[in-house]
Amino acid sequence: MKNEEKQYDPGLYLIPTPIGNLEDMTIRALRLLSVAEIIACEDTRVTGQLLKQYSITPQKLYSCREHNEKSVSEYLCTEVLSGKRVCYVSDAGTPGISDPGMILIQTAINLNIPYHVLPGATAIIPALIQSGFANDDWCFMGFPPHKKGRESFIQSVSQRHTVIVLYESPYRIMDLLEAFQQNDFLKKRRLYVVREITKKFEQSFRGTPQEILQNMSDHQTKGEFVLVIDKENE
Description:
Blueprint: H1 2-7, E1 11-15, H2 27-35, E2 38-41, H3 44-53, E3 61-63, H4 69-81, E4 85-89, H5 102-110, E5 115-117, H6 124-131, E6 138-140, H7 150-158, E7 163-168, H8 173-182, E8 191-195, E9 203-207, H9 209-215, E10 225-229
Parallel strand pairs: 1-4, 1-5, 2-3, 2-4, 6-7
Antiparallel strand pairs: 7-10, 8-9, 8-10
Helix pairs in contact: 4-5, 8-9
């Protein structure tokens, strides 16, 4: 443990966590979590289970969520300035990608705090590669808005000619596919839709929005979804 403590300088470390399979933690991430004076996270219960899985007892565990991210980010950066190693993890995936973390990074930049972003789990890249679509030109657009702005978001998607990667919740996936089916530009484009990526019950669907709607039953709409939309046919 002493050697590991010397290996990692005081600073802010953003650490990805598994999106499903707990074995996707990296050795470096586990070592940092084991020597951190402070671990901040979205949900202490979720992170507590992850730490327990790897027999890591946190010195201090703080919640840093959307509603308190600004104030907690300032506190965490102050702790880094005092010479501590501070780790931030999301519930699943890489902090800052459709998850809290970006305000923390911006605060560190403004205060000239040393920070490091570790590579690791994210649903975007595995889904993009699994799709088999050409990935020389693609973009990530995150989650569609729930209500306000949803229609204009879908219109914006339809106007892009590159491969597009989206996230969607199980509660709105059917609605999104139906909206694609009703769009003159999106209804003809090929989709790759995958749910529960990296988990035991991972499942994927290929085809047009209509074909996927026909093949996806209600019991298959559990777990978060990644949608990959192929380029517009030339």
